[in-house]
Amino acid sequence: MKKPIRVSQIGSRGIPGHRGGVERVIEAITPRLVASGFDITVYCANWSKYRQASYLGVKLRYVYSIPTKYFDTFVRSLLSTLRDIVGPSDIIHFHGSGSAPLALLARLFGKKVVVTVHGLDWQRRKWSIFGRWFLTLGEYAAVKIPHRTVAVGQELKRALDAQYGGSVVYIPNGVEQRPQRAADKISQFGVGTRGYILYLARLVPEKQCHVLIEAFKRLETKNGLKLLIAGSAWHSAEYVASLRALAGADSDIAFLGEVDEALLEELYSNCYAYVLPSEVEGMSLSLLEAMAFGACIIASDITANADLVGDSGLLFETGNAVDLSSKIQDIIAHPDGAEVYRERALRRMTSEFNWDGISRQWGALYLGLS
């Protein structure tokens, strides 16, 4: 009997339970790959509070990490790579430009290598000049070194192909079919069904939450709506402090912090509109999930968002709080229009983006390397 293809996943904080985009992708796909006959190992940060030996058949291995903005990912990926290159894996799959230079080490030890680029990471505001240089180098390595390079967005693929002359494979992120949740836990925030505008993403500068706060405060008529801001502050305490200062004493703006899965599902299910004002994206899993719950979408007009939203939501000029405020005001004034967008979003997600099909694309990629 032929042995299953052994694939190691390196570059995430680990699974299960982390809310980061890369982690959610790996958590969704790897159990499906195991079910289809692959032998999958995911390397995880040793500081994870979800430590366990395996997850739905996926082997979990823990390595040391330095949980800081500049060293966490690379140190963890380096130690994972050093451990894995002397192991039995057939393929090492790296995630993110920060881990991509390690693909050279993996190739020197005879491993087949895949790198997934989840976004143009060097464009993110949090990085220093050195950080941007390193991530630019990593982006080059992500295209030039591995046997296969994957981009999660069409615009991302176009940008990488144009910049490096490569042949990048497009495999999108996906989303589960999500059941609607009745308003229960959200009552603690003084809201009910269709009673709030929702921001649910990391609180980092490139996500542009400050633009949404400015836009919300400009609204002439809120019809009783509140603004709920949910998300973790991953190495961005100063930015979160600036958001709270911008919100001031406005009782209609609430910061929820990082939310658990049950509360997350209620927030998506019952919002009047979900807003993603980001200036940089590869393919936003938060946006995908909001659409899978049938939320009315308002997103910045960067190409990555426009490709995903299509005609199932509203777009506004990136960084323009006045334009965003106008879009929110319009959707408040036209609830029937908001309902049309909800129906379109749900239909688009269920027909075009699903994890079962996407996991088969990953599997085909691995089989092509074996």
- How many helices? 13
Biggest beta-sheet profile: 8 strands, mixed
Q: Which class do the helix and strand fractions yield?
A: alpha/beta
How much of the polypeptide forms β-strand, as a percent range?
A: 15-25%
- According to CATH, the fold-level topology of the largest domain is Rossmann fold
For the record, the CATH architecture of the largest domain stands as 3-Layer(aba) Sandwich
Note the overall shape: globular
Main sheet: strand order? 3-4-2-1-5-6-7-8
Any idea how many domains?
A: 2
What would CATH call the homologous superfamily of the largest domain?
Glycogen Phosphorylase B
- Overall mean pLDDT score? 91
Task: Give a summary of the structure in a few sentences.
Helices cover 41% and strands 17% of the residues.
What structural keywords apply?
eight-stranded mixed sheet, 13 helices, 370 residues, alpha/beta, 2 domains, Rossmann fold, 14 strands, six-stranded parallel sheet, single chain
How would you portray this structure in words?
By secondary structure, the chain is an alpha/beta fold. The chain has two domains: about 5-175 and about 355-370, Rossmann fold (3-Layer(aba) Sandwich), CATH 3.40.50; about 185-350, Glycogen Phosphorylase B (Rossmann fold). The protein has helices at about 20-35, 70-85, 105-110, 130-145, 155-165, 210-220, 235-245, 260-270, 285-290, 305-310, 320-335, 335-350, 355-370; strands at about 5-10, 40-45, 55, 60-65, 90-95, 110-115, 150, 170, 195-200, 225-230, 255, 275, 295-300, 315. An eight-stranded mixed beta sheet has the order 3-4-2-1-5-6-7-8, sandwiched between helices. A six-stranded parallel beta sheet has the order 11-10-9-12-13-14, sandwiched between helices. Strand 10, helix 7 (about 235-245) and strand 11 (about 255) form a beta-alpha-beta unit. Helix 6 packs parallel to helix 7 (about 235-245) and helix 9 (about 285-290) packs across helix 12 (about 335-350). The longest helix is centred in the C-terminal third of the chain and has 18 residues, at about 335-350.
